[in-house]
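Q: I have 262 residues here and want to know how they pack in 3D. Can you give me a structure?
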Amino acid sequence: MTAAEGAVTVHHDAAGTVATVVVDCAAKLNALTLDMLEQLYQHLRAIDASDVRVVVVTTAGSKVFSVGADIDQFSALAAPQMWKLWIAEGHRVFTALAQLRQPTIAVVDGLALGGGLELALACDLRVGATHARFALPETALGTIPGWGGTERLTQVVGAARAKDMIFTRRQLDAATAKEWGLLTDVADAAELPALAGGLVDAVLGGGPIAVQLAKQLVNAAAAGAPSATLEAMASGFSASTRDFADGVAAFRSKTTPEFTNS
């Protein structure tokens, strides 16, 4: 692999509970290629089958999170290839990320443009550095956001604001992104790892099966599914887990539960 080709790697913490996905193509501002999308997809499959409890998504460098799709690659495609390959692959991979059982946190340290913003939007939560900026500039190229941006941005910030960002290509600063709900929290670049780490620890404080069930319920609710039946089924399942028994016992003894993800 050369620096220009890029790579997607995964690093695990000592306990095996946190997986950090790193998109690294710094030589091209972390632009995403088809090969990198496939690497990401394979890592997501492995994570889904593992006991990992939280996934952090980040990129190489500190100025650019990702400028999105590699324009050199997609601009060379004929229209049928854009339709059948480029757009389809982006949706396949980002949908896999969005539907991952485990909670996902994007750590945005710099510009998140186009497919880079769509990558962050496919995560459950996002934290950003104060210098981070967010935009979907595709209409300036005569095209549209093609990896789920029109849907996921609308879900996060609402239709009017999504149209504003897409029509005008405006860049949101970190403070506005937080105000609009695009970011969970913001910190100076030097404090961003600690901010992300605190959020990871907070998620890890909950029972992992319960947290993952809750994610699936919220995703279903966002798609219009009624909660009463799904919550009844999920509650019945979670009540049968060892984590539930340990959580109740810890509550009664006023101690901290040690969840086993079982």
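Q: Anything worth noting?
A: Residues 54 and 203 are 7 Å apart (CA to CA). The chain has eleven helices and ten strands.
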